[in-house]
């Protein structure tokens, strides 16, 4: 049986024509049924993308598995609000990144009618004017600096230098300061922090390995998590909610997982899929303590703080083809929330990560909305924005989300090579999964989390 057929068998309900390219690339050793050695019980901690997918795969192979979730709902960092607007508002993960991943293949099979490609136009705020990428690359008045900036960003995966921040690296080029804000939106903010915190060597790792594609897809109707409910409903139904894990004792042959209310769950192996922020906060006590190499990895890999802010207007003030507005000083990127969707409303999403998100999170909704309306007015001075603002704002602060504590991990200075250490299992008993453990360049993505869940299951099935 070849590798492709093995992957197909792992996907219950998916026809043989569906390929899973990201997993084909990520697996060091793929199993055929006759190779499976493990016959014990597994506990999966965390019912987000990685945990649910891992549970699904284990169930498919007939492995006894329990799925424990600390919150009162499944989904992790995939969450939606269905009351703010006449469309579902994705307050967490929103996009399917690229068309070469397990997630894209799932969406094409289970939600093809809902899936669409975001092919709108991105506009960049430069010199108090909105410009297209074509203008930035070709305009004579920019003296080639726009093209230089994009060439630098396009070559991050082949960076040859020492570990330094993106900001420090960019200062070695003849770029005007006006391009730094745009570069921060395209790199630092996108990766979960800002360019003062992103490390070039860890960034090079991610950029050089990333293979799922540059296109972006979203769901026209419904919610993101509905895809998982369609594909992995069997695993989601197994989730035991409000089970807050306090400790994992893996000293003896049988692992003891104890919750904060004293419940004890026993297993032969455990997969920990909690967000990196929870590991940083030591919300789970491990006995014996974690290896020093893993503690260092947890410390060195950055964990981003993030805000998604949604504003409702009575009419549009942006061009009809607008997808994103990039390069604001307060908000690095705004996008048209309802682009490609059937909505009678006019919505913008403001996306800000890292220290700026922490700063804005301290503001009241009224002060925050005034700040954003002021920035949007400077970008669209004739848009009548203040008059069109409905006064309705929705703020999602991921730092304050219980049992999550942040948006996603980022490639920080000193984090090169650390994700491999974070992903390593301990004594063939405790395994780690989640986007922060992805070593295929798909950090901070849903499909990266799924790949890590697959890798952990693959390793378990090959063990005794």
Description:
With 464 residues, the chain is α/β, with parallel strands linked by helices. The chain has 2 domains: 3-76 and 223-302 and 409-461, FAD/NAD(P)-binding domain (3-Layer(bba) Sandwich), CATH 3.50.50.60; 119-214 and 305-407, Polyamine Oxidase, Chain A, domain 2. The protein contains 18 helices and 23 strands. Helix 6 runs parallel beside helix 8 (178-191). The longest helix has 16 residues, at 446-461. Residues 1-29 have low confidence and may be disordered.
Total domains, how many? Answer: 2
Strand order of the largest sheet: 8-7-18-19-20-17-21
Please give the CATH class of the largest domain: Alpha Beta
Give me the number of helical elements.
18
What does the overall shape look like?
Answer: globular
The value of Rg in angstroms is 22 Å
Please tell me the overall pLDDT: 93
Residues in β-strands, percent: 15-25%
Largest sheet: 7 strands, mixed
The percentage helix is: 25-40%
CATH topology of the largest domain: FAD/NAD(P)-binding domain
CATH A-level architecture of the largest domain: 3-Layer(bba) Sandwich
> How many beta-strand runs?
23
Tell me the structural class: alpha/beta
From the N-terminal CA to the C-terminal CA, the straight-line distance is: 22 Å
The CATH superfamily of the largest domain turns out to be FAD/NAD(P)-binding domain
Low-confidence stretches: 1-29
């Amino acid at each position: 049986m070849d590798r492709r057929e093995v992957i197909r068998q792992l996907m219950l309900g998916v026809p043989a024509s569906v390929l899973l390219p990201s997993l084909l690339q990520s697996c060091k050793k793929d199993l055929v049924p006759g190779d499976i050695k493990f016959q014990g019980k597994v506990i999966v901690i965390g019912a987000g993308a990685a945990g649910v997918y891992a549970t699904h795969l284990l169930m498919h192979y007939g492995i006894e598995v329990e799925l424990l979730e600390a919150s009162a709902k499944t989904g992790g960092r995939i969450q939606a609000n269905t009351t703010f607007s006449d469309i579902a508002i994705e307050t967490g993960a929103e996009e399917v990144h690229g068309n070469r991943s397990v997630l894209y293949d799932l969406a094409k099979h289970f939600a093809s009618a809902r899936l669409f490609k975001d092919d709108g136009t991105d506009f960049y705020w430069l010199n108090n004017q909105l410009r297209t990428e074509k203008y930035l690359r070709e305009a004579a008045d920019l003296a080639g600096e726009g093209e230089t900036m994009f060439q630098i960003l396009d070559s991050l995966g082949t960076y040859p230098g020492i570990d330094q921040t993106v900001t420090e690296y960019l200062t070695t080029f003849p770029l005007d300061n006006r391009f730094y804000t745009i570069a921060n939106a395209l790199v630092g903010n996108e990766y979960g922090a800002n360019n003062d915190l992103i490390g070039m060597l860890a960034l090079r790792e991610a950029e050089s390995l990333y293979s799922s594609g540059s296109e972006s897809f979203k769901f026209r109707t419904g919610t993101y998590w509905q895809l998982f409910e369609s594909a992995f409903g069997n695993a989601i139904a197994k989730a035991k909610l409000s089970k807050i894990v306090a400790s994992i004792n893996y000293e003896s042959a049988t692992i003891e997982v104890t919750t904060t209310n004293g419940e004890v769950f026993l297993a032969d192996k455990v997969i920990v899929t909690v967000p990196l922020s929870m590991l940083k906060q030591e919300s789970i006590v491990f006995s014996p303590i974690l290896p020093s190499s893993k503690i260092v990895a947890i410390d060195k890999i950055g964990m981003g703080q993030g805000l998604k802010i949604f504003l409702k207007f009575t009419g549009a003030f942006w061009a009809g083809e607008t997808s994103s507005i990039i390069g604001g000083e307060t908000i690095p990127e705004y996008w048209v929330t309802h682009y490609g969707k059937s909505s009678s409303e006019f919505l913008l999403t403001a996306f800000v990560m890292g220290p700026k998100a922490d700063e804005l999170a301290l503001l009241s909704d009224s002060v925050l909305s005034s700040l954003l309306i002021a920035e949007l007015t400077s970008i669209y001075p004739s848009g009548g924005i203040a008059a069109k603002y409905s006064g309705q704002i929705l703020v999602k602060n991921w730092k304050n989300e219980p049992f999550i504590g942040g948006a996603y991990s980022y490639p920080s200075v000193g984090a090169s090579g650390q994700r491999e250490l974070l992903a390593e299992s301990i004594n063939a008993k405790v395994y780690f999964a989640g986007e922060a453990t992805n070593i295929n360049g798909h950090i901070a993505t849903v499909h990266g989390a799924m790949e890590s869940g697959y890798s952990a299951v693959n390793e378990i099935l090959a063990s005794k």
